[in-house]
Design goal:
Low-confidence stretches: 15-25
Number of domains: 2
Strand order of the largest sheet: 2-3-1-4
Strand content: 15-25%
CATH class of the largest domain: Alpha Beta
Mean pLDDT: 87
Number of strands: 4
CATH architecture of the largest domain: 2-Layer Sandwich
Helix content: 40-55%
Number of helices: 4
Shape: flat
């Protein structure tokens, strides 16, 4: 069997395996991960940091929220792929897109944004769906 044919067979098998995995996972529990990074206008202000942390703590009241973790950049060994320029991260997990969407319009979330947006100069959000558990 020539190399091209072996390559096509292996590629087809791999694609079939991924398709099978995706089909198998589609009917299971897929969580939505919502990761938010905040850059403070005054990054050296402990007062601003504490105000933001208090506001983030209030989000734990939202019913659709399953996990809520707040952190600051870890002082790991610097590498090209690591961004430590932000001041605070918020990692939240929801059962599904519906839970996330409910969170976005929840009055607690709206109050957080309204009362704390003056503290940050930049916010960056990464949303993802579980494909591996």
């Amino acid at each position: 069997m020539n190399s091209r044919r072996r390559f096509l067979i292996k590629t087809g098998a791999a694609a079939s395996g991924l398709a099978f995995f995706a089909d198998a996972k589609a009917g299971t529990d897929r969580k939505l991960v919502h990761h938010v990074f905040f850059w403070l206008k005054n990054p050296d202000s402990e007062e601003d940091l504490n105000l933001l942390l208090a506001g983030l703590r209030s989000l734990k009241k939202i019913k659709s929220l399953r996990t809520c973790r707040v952190g600051t950049p870890a002082r790991t060994e610097p590498r090209d792929v690591i961004d430590q320029s932000y001041q605070v991260s918020l990692l939240t997990i929801f059962d599904d897109v519906k839970g996330h969407d409910e969170y976005q319009v929840d009055p607690v979330h709206a109050a957080f944004v309204e009362n704390h947006a003056h503290l940050w100069s930049k916010v960056l959000v990464y949303d993802s769906m579980d494909i591996l558990a």
